[in-house]
Design goal:
The complex is a heterodimer of chains A (298) and B (607). Chain A is of the alpha/beta class and 298 residues long. Chain A has helices at residues 18-31, 79-84, 123-126, 138-145, 151-159, 167-177, 183-195, 237-241, 269-273; strands spanning 6-13, 35-40, 50-58, 71-76, 89-98, 132-136, 220-225, 247-248, 257-258, 279-284. In chain A, 51% of the residues are buried. Chain B folds into four domains: 11-229, Thiamin diphosphate (ThDP)-binding fold, Pyr/PP domains (Rossmann fold, 3-Layer(aba) Sandwich), CATH 3.40.50; 233-331, Rossmann fold, CATH 3.40.50; 363-524, Thiamin diphosphate (ThDP)-binding fold, Pyr/PP domains (Rossmann fold, 3-Layer(aba) Sandwich), CATH 3.40.50.970; 539-603, Alpha-Beta Plaits. In chain B, β15 (375-377), α15 (402-413) and β16 form a beta-alpha-beta unit. In chain B, α1 crosses α2, α1 (17-27) packs parallel to α6 (146-163) and α3 runs parallel beside α4 (88-104). The chains are: A alpha/beta (298), B alpha/beta (607). Chains A and B meet through α1, β2, α2, α8 and α9 of A and β1, β8, α10, α13 and β21 of B. Bound molecules: thiamine diphosphate (TPP) and iron/sulfur cluster (2 copies).
Chain lengths: 298, 607
């Protein structure tokens, strides 16, 4: 049995194929004569949450989990998840990360300031923390090789020279685990990933400072209601239309009220839709609320 | 998966713990297997079906865990080896039978698998089910990896038959969903010993049960003697300064963190082999108990008078990990305190909680309930995600089927500030909701019950249920008609509505809430992910029409993102056409008609 041992953490978003990629790598380890353990969590996280799979190989493996700061490599199918997994890497470990971005719905919640809570895509910045970052536009590489959906095989291809598994072990593992219809596309994507060289030659346009999006004035408003003109709960068009749930009724009270006045973004829907012209919205100049992650991407 | 090939020879293959249990059951000649899906147990029966193309084994998704264990018990009484699988909280549901099956025993082996979820990756609590084995008085086996999952499954069937008792095989997430090398043996055809009438054993009238209670206690003594000898409990003597008593996944972490320590590795953890434990503890200096979750072993060691240390150093809450074991050993002074390596810091990242899928049929009903100001008792399933922003439309979720009873209590408390609506999935209604709905009808409760019928058990990956019209093997099957069921239970107002129709869903719920007495609204649309992926023509946003009002963002659809372009300071939106399922819900809420179908070849909007 080979004497080396190692740990690889694979991460991504539910539905991206983390579990399949990990199964391929684990099978390649087995075919290379190693003992293998692998651990992942199925279930709730597969609904668009974070999916991670720990893979450990060696002459004899006990724990299926990698300790914090002990992974030799992280393979991330999505940018944000690659950044999140950095603490899993040992010093000198390799971060293999796709430039694919899947911002979660919760990245778009700063309705007043409009800050996007998603880390900027900047491999150069990461290299200050992790010297060996192998970032690739895996989906484009896979598309060029025949099928964009085989992007995870591109990343396995990038991983493959770092692990002591012979090429036949990888090929056998891909053939045994990938559905037949997608096999050739995944073989081609794997080969394309394996052929990539790092550090990559800078793509045209990179290296220049990124231009930050100009700061926009925050979007904040306030609502004026002409009580006498409001028909009350029988109408309630404005209450149902307001995207911020600003408007509502006190129990049994006729005129509509701003029950969450601070949430108003001055989108004007209530003013436009009120059949009785009872509402006037004023855009107010108020300083921006606390922005989330300083992460406006360009 | 493909790993459990049809032919089995002595080669090592990579199997998850769940696949290994299925394999072990096949090698033990299991004849009947029944379970209810629940993470992390679900894949056991799915692997069993894949391993059995010739249909030698009867396998079913039962409507709940109580039914599943009854099916398995009946099968074992009928003389064939039987397996029942469930997650930890499923054993609460099955425990009524479980507790008394410990009295009856069975003819053929009955193995109950409880897959616990320390850390609550996908669960509402992290109860330690080892205590239930002790509570019931049945033997408890705890595998520590996939290879043992297979071995202990086979051992469980043998133990069950030898001692005429159900056996609890308890796994955890890191056993069930971890893969390791397993050497396969030969599969056996199901055993068929036949039914033998024995009322004194199977009819638990008090007179008979009193005698069986004595049998149970005698059996436990015999099992305790067996526990002293079985190779499932083994002493690994190394450095005698420290002795670790451990079981399950914790064993693996201990072997890595403290490779030189002596270890008492317990595979059969109920009843405890007292002499073996005493003997081991006498041969080592300091005794540590390292176990996940509660101090199950530790308390028993203390009761034996052993000065064992455990939860002083190791966490009781959450999942154990190699790091957690190392931290505990540092606190115990067993590994050098030193500074633990500080991992590289991660830059700020976006949180990524689970969310409802693009096109999920559960979105619109909850959007409506929020607008209607309802107090919503929830239940367990994908729809529980409606409790999170932006829908934020669920006020409780406790256990499967609790929504209806809790809603009744809320109504009767007089404390509800708005209309009370119970929301329950189709699988959950058929699991534990029917008695509660009957209760609500019979007690004339002013209440709205919303049944979210997506035709499947989605949260756990799309398993069939009695309303799905299919078996676990994918064969067509008669199905329970949920609307007819509600009417048969006595509900007079039952409305079926398409949740992709925003206005119709809103109006149906509004009407149900306004009407006196009990009303049922059923939303009828299949899950877009499982058992089949549903994709329709995607939608797109005409940027020039978008006024960035954010109404569509309130759906929480992952396909709708902020565009860079802004309108009056707010982000306009864009739709990711590769993930949009074409449900058309966002198009219905858009006040400016900016969202329309992607039309082939042409730009989405002429203007
Ligand atoms: C007693 C018990 N058994 C099993 C589970 C696991 N479980 C959680 S949600 C769920 C499925 C719910 O299905 P359904 O009600 O149809 O909702 P859906 O996920 O399809 O929206 C299951 C089986 C549990 N939490 N509790
Ligand atoms: S799996 Fe189905 S039911 Fe669950 S969130 Fe996705 S679409 Fe909705
Ligand atoms: S049609 Fe709209 S709401 Fe439906 S999946 Fe597509 S983007 Fe999401």
């Amino acid at each position: 049995m080979p004497a080396e041992s190692g740990s690889v953490l694979l991460v991504g978003v539910g539905g991206q194929g983390v579990v399949l990629s990990s199964a391929v790598a684990a099978d390649a380890a087995r075919r290379s004569g190693f003992d293998v353990k692998q651990s992942e969590v199925h279930g709730m996280s597969q609904r668009g949450g974070v999916v991670s799979s720990h893979l450990r190989y060696g002459p004899l493996v006990h724990s299926p989990l990698i300790g914090a700061g002990e992974a030799d490599a992280v393979v991330a199918l999505e940018w944000n998840e690659g950044v999140r997994a950095i603490p899993a890497l040992r010093p000198g470990g390799t971060l293999i990360v796709s430039l694919d971005r899947i911002p979660p719905p919760s990245a778009f919640v700063d309705r007043h300031g409009g800050a996007v809570a998603y880390p900027a895509v900047a491999p150069d910045t990461l290299r200050r923390t992790v010297p060996d970052v192998r970032a690739a536009d895996a989906t484009s590489v896979a598309a060029a090789a025949g099928n964009a959906r085989a992007m995870n095989s591109v990343l396995l291809g990038i991983l493959s020279p770092l692990l002591p598994f012979p090429a036949e072990a990888w090929d056998g593992a891909i053939a045994a685990n990938v559905p037949r219809a997608a096999l050739e596309a995944n073989r081609a994507a794997f080969a394309a990933g394996r052929a990539l060289r790092f550090p990559a030659a800078p793509a045209p346009g990179t290296g220049r400072p990124r231009r930050r999006a100009p700061a926009e004035p925050p979007s904040v408003g306030s609502v004026d209601i002409v009580d006498a003109w409001c028909k009350g709960e029988d109408c309630a068009i404005c209450v149902r239309a307001c995207p911020e749930y600003v408007l509502g009724f006190e129990p049994d009270a006729r005129p509509v009220r701003a029950v969450r006045p601070d949430a108003c973004t001055a989108c004007m829907l209530c003013e436009i839709l009120c059949p009785d012209f009872a509402i006037t919205v004023r855009r107010a100049a108020v300083p921006a609320g606390p922005s989330l992650v300083a992460a406006e991407t360009t | 998966m493909s790993s459990i090939a049809a032919s089995s020879s002595s080669i090592a293959v990579l199997l998850s713990g769940n696949e290994a249990i299925a394999q072990g059951a096949r090698e033990a000649g299991v004849g009947v297997a029944a379970g209810y899906p629940g993470t992390p147990s679900t894949e056991i029966l799915e692997a069993l079906v894949r391993s059995d193309p010739d249909r030698e084994v009867y396998v079913e998704w039962s409507s709940n865990e109580k039914v599943a264990i009854d099916v398995a018990l009946g099968a074992a009484v009928g003389g064939t080896r039987a397996l029942t699988t469930m997650k930890h909280v499923g054993l609460n549901v099955a425990s009524d039978t479980f507790m008394t099956a410990a009295y009856t025993g069975a003819r053929a082996g009955l193995v109950v698998v409880s897959a616990d979820d320390p850390g609550m990756h996908s669960s509402q609590n992290e109860q330690d089910n080892r205590f239930l084995a002790r509570f019931a008085g049945v033997p408890l086996l705890e595998p520590s990896d996939s290879a043992e999952a297979r071995d202990l499954t086979i051992a469980a069937f043998e133990l069950a038959e030898r001692f005429d008792t159900p056996v609890l095989l308890r796994t955890t997430t890191r056993i069930a969903h971890a893969r390791g090398l397993v050497t396969l043996g030969e599969r056996r055809a199901p055993s068929r010993a036949g039914f033998v009438r024995d009322a004194a054993k199977y009819v638990m009238l008090p007179g008979f049960a009193r005698r069986r209670r004595v049998v149970l206690l005698e059996r436990l003594e015999a099992l305790r003697r067996h526990a002293e000898e079985t190779p499932l409990n083994r002493v690994e003597l190394r450095d005698p300064a420290v002795g670790v008593v451990t079981s399950g996944i914790a064993y693996q972490y201990v072997r890595e963190a403290l490779p030189e320590a002596s270890v008492l590795k317990l595979g059969l953890t109920h009843p405890l082999p007292e002499a073996l434990v005493r003997d081991f503890c006498a041969r080592v200096g300091r005794v540590l108990v390292i176990e996940e979750l509660d101090p199950y072993l530790e308390e028993q060691l203390r009761a034996l008078g052993v000065a064992a240390e455990g939860k002083r150093f190791f966490p009781r809450a959450g999942e154990l990990s190699p790091d957690g074991v190392r931290a505990g050993l540092r606190a115990a002074g067993l590994v050098p305190a030193g500074t633990p390596r500080t991992p590289a810091p991660a830059p700020a990242t976006a949180a990524r909680p689970p969310v409802l899928c693009p096109g999920c049929p559960h979105v619109v009903p909850f959007l409506a309930l929020r607008q209607l100001g309802a107090i919503v008792t929830g239940d367990i399933g994908c729809y529980t995600l409606a409790a999170s922003p932006p829908l934020s439309a669920m006020d409780s979720c406790v256990a499967m089927g609790s929504s209806i009873g809790m809603a009744m209590g809320l109504v009767r408390s007089g404390g509800a500030s708005g209309p009370v609506v119970a929301t329950i999935g189709d699988s959950t209604l058929l699991h534990a909701g029917i008695p509660a709905l009957a209760d609500a009808v019979a007690n004339d409760t002013p209440l709205t019950v919303l049944v979210l019928d997506n035709g499947t058990t989605a949260m756990t990956g799309g398993q069939s249920h009695p309303g799905a019209g299919a078996t676990i093997r994918g064969d067509g099957a008669p199905r329970v008609d949920i609307a007819a069921l509600c009417r048969a239970l006595g509900a007079r107002s039952v409305t079926v509505v398409d949740p992709y129709d925003v206005a119709a869903t809103y109006r149906a719920l509004e009407k149900a809430i306004a009407s006196p007495g009990l009303s049922v609204v059923i939303t009828d649309r299949p899950c877009v992910v499982a058992p089949v992926k549903i994709r329709d023509t995607p939608f797109t946003v005409a940027a020039e029409r978008c006024i960035a009002c954010q109404l569509c963002m309130n759906l929480g659809c992952p396909s709708i993102v902020w565009a860079d372009e802004r309108y009056e300071g707010r982000h306009k939106v864009a739709i990711d056409e590769t993930t949009c399922t074409g449900c058309a819900v966002c198009a219905q809420v858009c006040p400016t008609d900016a969202i329309a179908l992607v039309t082939e070849g042409a730009p989405a909007h002429a203007g």
